[in-house]
Amino acid sequence: MSGEQNEPGDRPGGKVVLVTGGARGIGAGVARRFAGAGCRVAIASRSASPAAAAVLAEIEALGAQGIAVAGDISNSEDARAMVGEVVARFGRIDVLVNCAGVAEYRAFEATDLAMFRATFDTNVFGTVAMIQAALPHLTAPGGRIINFSSALATRPIPTASIYAASKAAVSALTHALAKEFGPRGITVNAIAPGVIETEMTAAILAERGAAIKAMTPLGRIGQTDDVAGLALFLASHDAGWLTGRTIIADGGVS
Description:
alpha/beta, oxidoreductase activity
């Protein structure tokens, strides 16, 4: 029997989970799924908003404890402050889900330094900053870090070069940190979704939804719950021997 089984929060209902980008889209779906499993869930968003309040209300309606924190993940001080609020409320963090991200699509010739920095500051350094802030408070052994990459990291499309590169960096970071944190008993994995139906993809689906559905072996557009279930699995004891992997969840397109 591994020592991990005896760590605080081993049962799903006992875990403390921090989800960045938890006010909308995939992050909100992940937060709801963990709350439904009885976890104590903190949702982090750039600012306090009606969307964050609505997700927090859903978490509490599911009978789970929740907290909403606000800050810019690409700012190290904000990241530490948000983590500090969660630890002050719940005492520790068992699972960190780095779901917050930005996506801007431009022809390569139209790419500029401002766009590059905005994309990499949030998608890559934001992930770094949140991990650095959470690590001292993460259960060890037994802690889980779940990052969000993208299927576009391995099958990019025109106009997505900068976004795809940022998500490829997240996958590389995931692999490297899995080796660095493995001796502490902390796993680090990433989920790489294809197109998931959210506010962020509304324009893409309006333009190319039928074509995306036609090229998807499972014959439909992905939903947030499809990805949320995978996050819940990666946080479970059953995934304790899985680390350093980026799991593509795109309905078989890849």
